[in-house]
Inverse folding.
């Protein structure tokens, strides 16, 4: 039994018999602080700890790294002077990580097996890892498997996880290995927490956003949300947005949306006499709420302004650079997942797309709605949807792309949204794989000039619009890019509203200010 001194943990390591290689980079003494975000990972010495076990440098006969049991007390924020056998060197360049212990490189072999050799793999990407913030912590993903997934949707991205699940014989597994990413949220699997050796010798500032996960928001002009960070340091927290054309953040952590796009929201504290300096960040994606016709998307470079809703389970639609958008629920339990379009202000729409499927399972559903509002509804089921699945052509055999034909709707109420709904049971006989690409929507946008909708008349004019209504109500005014320009309360009768020159959508009615 070996004892290690911790600042806030008591760590007792029962090391199994094996040969351990020392590392020159870690001198055998120092303070390791918890890493809170993937963007904090830089070249240095690290420990990987999950479920009270540390990953050691003992390479087992099962081609995995052996865990060392820990006895933990305290707040689990830092540790001091661990054994060299539990410390791995991370070499980071351009976002790619090489993990070593002594001269041995932690790489990927196949299946759930590591390579652990002093010579590099012939394919360098098998020895490379990328860090990404996940729901349960920082995921270390193998680059070879990321690339394989890009060309083969059935492939699994492999992450370093601790497997403590019960196997077929009833015994409990006990190994750190490269397991499928889907296991990161499965029972019996654990995402390692990373601890980095402090170069300054000072404890971590423990800087973190109260909700530091990546966020997606739907654009509404002037909309705000709170995103504060916390720290034990006395240094002030400095907030920043990498793209202030998309969103800004003030000194109190209040984020204001400016336009659709993507930005990195960050918080930082400077080092002081008591704590290390630190920086944390997350990605904020702001989507358009409204698009105009004609509209097209193949989903191969992302989901665009479409919304992903996992109503049941944690399966989500995923963009694939070769195939489009993919939904597959095998091995993921019961799933109900929606892919919902941005709104379209149109009186007529003609929709086409291509679909592909394989494996057994429920058919994909195609639906249309005139009242779904993602700004006020968290679940598409809260809206009224009409099932139009039968109006499209679908694959009659597995593994064959099929064009939908033209799905036409006239005399529509705006805003119009369409959705694909996937249902799966998680088993081989009830979890088909579906793919969609080459979606095109054409039709007639709402007429310009004076227009009427639901007893409201909107009159275009010079420097203003005039809204005539038979009742008092709240209206929203959007630009043609989907940005909300104004949300205001109108009264019964005439309501002049001053606006800059441009084309606007007023509660689904198009108007021009000149």
């Amino acid at each position: 039994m070996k004892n290690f001194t911790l600042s806030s943990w008591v760590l007792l390591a029962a090391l199994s018999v094996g040969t351990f290689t020392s590392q020159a980079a870690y001198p055998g003494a120092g303070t390791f602080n918890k890493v809170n975000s993937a963007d904090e990972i830089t070249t240095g010495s690290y420990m990987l700890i999950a479920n009270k076990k540390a990953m050691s440098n003992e390479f087992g006969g099962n081609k995995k790294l052996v865990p060392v049991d820990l006895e933990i007390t305290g707040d689990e924020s830092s540790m001091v002077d661990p054994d060299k056998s539990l410390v791995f060197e991370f070499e980071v360049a351009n976002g790619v990580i090489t993990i070593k212990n002594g001269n041995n490189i932690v790489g990927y072999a196949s299946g759930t097996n590591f390579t652990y050799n002093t010579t590099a793999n012939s394919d360098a990407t098998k020895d490379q890892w990328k860090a990404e913030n996940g729901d349960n912590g920082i995921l270390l993903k193998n680059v070879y498997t990321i690339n394989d997934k890009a060309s083969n949707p059935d492939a699994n991205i492999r992450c370093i996880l601790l497997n403590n699940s019960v196997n077929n014989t009833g015994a409990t597994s006990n190994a750190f290995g490269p397991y499928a990413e889907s296991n990161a949220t499965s029972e019996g699997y654990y995402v390692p927490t990373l601890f980095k050796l402090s170069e300054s010798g000072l404890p971590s500032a423990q800087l973190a956003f109260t909700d530091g996960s990546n966020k997606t928001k739907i654009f509404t002009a002037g909309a705000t949300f709170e995103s504060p960070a916390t720290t034990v340091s006395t240094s002030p927290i400095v907030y920043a947005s990498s793209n202030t054309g998309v969103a800004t953040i003030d000194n109190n952590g209040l984020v204001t949306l400016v336009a659709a796009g993507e930005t990195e929201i960050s918080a930082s504290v400077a080092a002081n006499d008591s704590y290390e300096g630190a920086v944390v960040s997350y990605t904020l994606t702001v989507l358009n709420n409204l698009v105009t016709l004609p509209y097209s998307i193949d989903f191969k470079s992302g989901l665009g302004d479409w919304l992903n809703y996992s109503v049941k389970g944690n399966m989500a639609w995923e963009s694939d650079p070769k195939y489009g958008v993919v939904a597959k629920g095998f091995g993921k339990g019961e799933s109900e997942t929606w892919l919902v379009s941005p709104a379209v202000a149109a009186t007529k729409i003609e929709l086409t797309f291509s679909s592909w499927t394989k494996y057994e399972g429920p058919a994909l559903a195609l639906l249309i709605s005139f009242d779904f509002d993602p700004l006020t509804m968290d679940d598409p089921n809260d809206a009224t949807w009409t099932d139009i699945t039968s109006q499209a052509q679908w694959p009659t055999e597995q593994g064959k792309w099929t064009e939908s034909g033209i799905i036409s709707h006239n005399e529509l109420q705006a805003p119009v949204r369409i959705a694909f709904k996937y249902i799966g049971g998680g088993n081989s006989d009830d979890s088909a794989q579906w793919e969609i690409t080459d979606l095109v929507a054409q039709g007639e946008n709402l007429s310009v000039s004076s227009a009427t909708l639901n007893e409201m008349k909107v009159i275009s004019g010079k420097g203003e619009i005039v809204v005539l209504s038979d009742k008092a109500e709240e209206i929203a005014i959007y630009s043609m890019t989907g940005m909300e320009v104004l949300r205001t309360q109108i009264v019964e009768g005439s309501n002049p509203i001053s606006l800059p020159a441009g084309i606007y959508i007023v509660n689904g009615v198009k108007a021009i200010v000149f």
In short: Residues 261 and 304 are 10 Å apart (CA to CA). The longest strand covers residues 346-358. The radius of gyration is 27 Å.
